[in-house]
Design a protein that fits this description.
The complex is a heterotrimer of chains A (372), B (172) and C (395). Chain B is an alpha/beta fold and 172 residues long. Chain B contains three helices and eight strands; from the N terminus they run αβαββββαβββ. In chain C, strands 3-4-5-11 form a four-stranded antiparallel β-sheet. A three-stranded antiparallel β-sheet of chain C has the order 8-9-10. Chains in contact: A-C, B-C.
């Protein structure tokens, strides 16, 4: 990466290093009264999702799974098959966009859109660096938890609108699963919010910065934080329908679940939404527990590693890398574990994760009060 | 040589089992055919087949609890259709025996033994499908491999394939 | 439970009225297959479902019916061998062997000893390959993708060896009546030995990845339990019957070929790791059988008579016309008992009747009973554990 070579002092090119400097400046950019800056802000995560889904999401997953399964993965299109995803996209673009005759056309068409918007809206409050955040809400975390629930509407619309029994099963399973898992997920995140004392995403990051690098992350601040961290990670797998909780699209049971009837670009949009929310939950977990854009490297005496790796671009680098790491873990699990059954999934949610989430909530509260 | 002794020992075991059945049913079953490849007896009184089957399964000295195979056969010279059942006993005795049951080609039927051995259920459906043998008392007498509206009984020796099936030309 | 909607009104007092509403529900008929990822081919199950619970699943067969028995009545005995490959296409060698044994019994001919050894080696190799497919696809049914590819990677080695010997990857036409098509290539034993050494650690890895996985155990333990006596009554055989705790293996109980001389165990579940008769037991039996097959192969390599002066077609009859008679002979296939009932009239060179007793066909017939009251994911687990090959079910 080329910006590694740049000296840190020259990094804040035109803006200061203050919080949200870039995004504030972009918001103000409105030539001829047109809010172009706002559009740019919205476009950045969109382009980011598209690029990442194309490269790391699809191609990376195929290569990673191939590595785990003792095979090569895509090798034909381009060197090491790097253009494979592009070829796939071209193929999908040319596909006929089929709407089944007996489908509910309106629901069928808006389903993928709502699904994508649901995962995309949450990117608004993700701080991509110490100077960039789409919308600096003071209830950012709450907003992120809430807006994810919109995905359920998209899935239900897609599954119901398809007028297909498999899709209906997939949609019903998905709704039951996502709604259930939001409870442990939200409570686990609240533990992080309690440690920070704020719901502001940028604020949570700032509280975890310091010269000791990773030692300032909430995960290492209190031993109890590991519990909500693990709970949120497990719940986030279920919320994004990833294995071992991929029962809504369980291909060996429900053919393809709620998107059985989709083809062409609508199918691609559903995939984009899936990869979008994969990154979103990974970013949230790294923001709340692993310091978001903060560098994990500590200053060791004269070797000021932390100072050297802090800055707007470094921040974006760290949060994306942390997100990618969790996506890698998600893929790793997907290619290792079998799928749970519906009732086992609900058992895990209501009888294991939720009580432990409450427990960790209480323990965190006690820790925050009695341990300085 | 060794094969031969094993074979004849099997025949003796089958014969011993046969004598138990013969004692009970007497003239309803034929004499024992002690050929080395597949010793069998034939059920003469077809109506008694279910009773014989139950007896064979439940008698403490027989315990033919396992039906290996049930094959439908066409005997055009005798004007008959028949089934050949290969029975044996798992876990109780080392004996095995084959039973033949025959019925007239036209309008005949054989009592079903699907209530005795579940295996017979699908095999009898297959025999019905392929040869048109009717099994009375079968819980679900439908075709199994061919489509429900297929005409004729494919494994009968005088079978002629139908000209067209739903507008598709069949003989090619 | 599906039921009519009803409204119950209870009057507690003058101004407190409790109205309870049960919404009307109805059963949904779900056609699972013939194009469904986990029906292993073209099986169709017509499921009546109440929510996720399957109240009844009726199997419909015949989508792959290729008139095996009708063909048999029109071709020579030798020409039937390729058809047997196409019945259970995952275990062609075993099917050929069962058929060859049946006709040889009818003809009463002596087989050279080396032929018997080669037959046992190739069919045990094929048994391993077939069990690998069974285990791999079972993993996929339960959502684990990686074990499937591990299985197929190792199966590929076996197919390469069988291709080396016979010239074909799946449909071999290698075991002829009275002999073999060819002798094995000169270094065959060495390569098989290398494969056994290579495969042992891979089998351990596979079992650690799949069999010992907590989720896998949770998905299969206690699901689709079949008691031993019912299993026998259904005519189950092979790993299915052994999974129910009945130690019944035709290689031991109705010995053929050189199996009496070989030392191998017939694994049955002991009820410690799995509940006897459930899906996990059936899976375990298959996994353990792979180990036993490796043992058999090792012994065969050691004991095999030398190739000098060996003609694999020495005992192959020029023209096969058995004397009038009938035979029912069977062999232990990876999926159970594959039997052939052959009726010869003594005049013709093709059988008067050749019935294949297919193990999958019989094993599958219990599906209706096993599926009652199961969840859809469990139904998938049960179908997978039966390990059907539709080519053999429909023939």
């Amino acid at each position: 990466m080329s910006f590694n070579a740049l000296p840190q002092s020259s990094m804040p090119l035109l803006m200061g290093n203050s919080l949200n400097a870039w995004s504030d400046a972009l918001t103000g950019f409105a030539p001829m009264g047109l809010p172009l800056g706002l559009l740019v802000i919205a476009a950045i995560p969109l382009v980011f999702i598209a690029l990442y889904a194309l490269t790391y999401g699809v191609y990376g997953e195929r290569k990673i799974s191939a590595f785990m399964q003792d095979r090569l993965g895509p090798m034909e299109v381009g060197k090491w098959g790097i253009l494979q995803t592009l070829a796939d996209i071209l193929k999908l673009l040319q596909k006929e966009d089929i709407v089944p005759t007996s489908a509910d056309k309106f629901l069928f068409v808006i389903g993928p859109g709502v699904l994508f918007v649901g995962s995309f809206l949450a990117f608004a409050v993700l701080p991509f660096g110490p100077a960039f955040i789409g919308a600096n809400l003071n209830v950012g975390l709450f907003y992120a938890i809430g807006i994810v629930a919109l995905e359920v509407v998209g899935i239900l619309a897609a599954g119901w609108g398809s007028n297909n029994k498999w899709a209906l099963y997939g949609a019903v399973r998905s709704v039951a699963q996502i709604v259930s898992y939001e409870i442990p997920a939200a409570i686990a995140l609240l533990c992080g919010a309690m440690m920070a004392g704020t719901l502001d995403m940028q604020e949570i990051n700032v509280l975890q910065s310091g010269t000791w690098g990773f030692a300032h992350f909430f995960l290492f601040q209190s031993p109890i934080a590991w519990l909500p961290f693990l709970i949120y990670f497990i719940a986030s797998l279920a919320e994004t329908n990833r294995a071992p909780f991929d029962i809504p699209e369980a291909e060996s049971e429900l053919v393809a679940g709620y998107f059985t009837e989709y083809s062409g670009m609508k199918f691609a949009v559903i995939f984009l939404a899936e990869y979008g929310s994969m990154f979103m939950v990974s970013a949230i977990i790294s923001i709340v527990f692993l310091g978001g854009w903060n560098s994990p490297l500590p200053n060791i005496g004269p070797l000021a590693l932390n100072d050297m790796t802090t800055g707007p671009v470094w921040g974006a680098f760290w949060i994306i890398m942390k997100g990618f790491f969790f996506i890698f873990v998600q893929m790793w699990l997907r290619w290792t574990l079998p799928r749970l059954r519906v009732d086992q999934l609900m058992y895990l949610c209501w009888k294991v994760l939720t009580p432990f989430a409450f427990l960790s909530f209480v323990l965190t509260a006690i820790w925050m009060i009695y341990v300085p | 040589m060794e094969e031969g002794t094993i074979g004849s020992k099997q025949v003796q075991l089958s014969e011993a089992a046969y004598s138990v059945i013969h004692e009970k049913f007497g003239e309803a079953i034929s004499a024992f055919d002690r050929n080395p490849t597949m010793p069998f007896f034939e059920v003469q009184d077809t109506a008694l087949w279910t009773d014989i089957a139950l007896f064979m399964r439940d008698h403490p000295k027989l315990k033919f609890n396992y039906m290996a195979c049930l094959s439908g056969v066409d005997y055009p010279e005798e004007e008959k259709l028949g089934i050949v059942c290969n029975l044996e006993s798992i876990g109780a005795y080392p004996h095995r025996i084959a039973v033949k049951v025959k019925c007239p080609r036209e309008g005949g039927s054989i009592p079903s033994v699907s209530c005795v051995w579940h295996t017979a259920n699908w095999h009898e459906r297959e025999a019905y499908d392929m040869l048109g043998i009717l099994f009375t008392g079968h819980p679900d007498m439908r075709r199994i491999l061919c489509p429900d509206d297929w005409e004729g009984w494919p494994l009968r020796k005088d079978y002629r394939v139908q000209e067209s099936y739903h507008g598709i030309k069949v003989p090619y | 439970m599906a039921g009519q909607g009803s409204v119950r009104v209870t009057r507690k007092s003058d101004n407190v009225v409790i109205i309870e509403k049960d919404l009307a529900t109805e059963e949904m008929v779900l056609s699972m297959g013939p194009q469904h990822p986990s029906t292993h081919g073209v099986l169709r199950l017509e499921c009546r479902t109440d929510g996720e619970v399957v109240t009844e699943a009726e199997p419909y067969l015949g989508y792959l019916h290729r008139c095996f028995e009708k063909h048999c009545e029109h071709v020579d005995y030798q020409a039937i061998v390729p058809y047997t490959d196409r019945m259970d296409y995952l275990a062609g060698m075993n099917s050929e062997m069962a058929y060859a044994i049946a006709v040889e019994k009818l003809l009463d001919i002596e087989i050279p000893r080396r032929v018997e050894f080669i037959r046992v080696i190739v069919s045990e190799l094929n048994r391993i390959a077939s069990h690998l497919v069974a285990i791999g696809t079972y993993a996929i049914d339960l959502g684990a993708f990686t074990p499937f590819l591990f299985c197929f990677r190792d199966r590929e080695h076996i197919l390469n060896m069988l291709e080396w010997a016979s010239g074909a990857r799946m449909l071999y036409n290698y075991i002829w009546i009275g002999g073999l098509a060819y002798d094995v290539p000169s270094d065959f034993q060495k390569r098989v030995g290398e494969f056994v050494d290579y495969f042992r650690p891979k089998a351990v890895e596979l079992s650690r990845l799949l069999t010992e996985n907590e989720i896998f155990v949770k998905r299969t333990k206690g699901i689709g339990i079949m008691p031993a006596d019912v299993a026998i009554n259904y005519g189950w055989s092979g790993p299915m019957l052994r999974g129910s705790g009945v130690q019944w293996d035709l290689r031991r109980n109705d010995p053929y070929s050189i199996y009496p001389e070989l030392d191998f165990a017939v694994p049955v579940p002991d009820g410690k790791f799995s509940d006897v008769g459930d899906c996990l037991s059936r899976h375990l039996v298959r996994a353990l059988e792979i180990e036993e097959s490796l043992k058999i192969i090792e012994q065969c390599i050691g004991k095999m008579p030398p190739a000098e002066g060996f003609d694999p077609r020495a005992a192959v009859p020029k023209r096969i016309r058995p004397k009038a008679g009938e035979v029912y002979a069977r062999a232990e296939n990876p999926r159970g008992e594959l039997g052939f009932y052959i009726l010869s009239d003594g005049k013709s060179t093709s059988p008067l009747r050749c019935k294949a007793r297919s193990s999958c066909f019989v094993n599958l017939s219990a599906m209706k009973d096993l599926s009652k009251g199961q969840l859809i994911p469990d139904l998938v687990a049960i179908i997978g554990s039966i390990d059907i090959v539709l080519g053999e079910v429909d023939r």
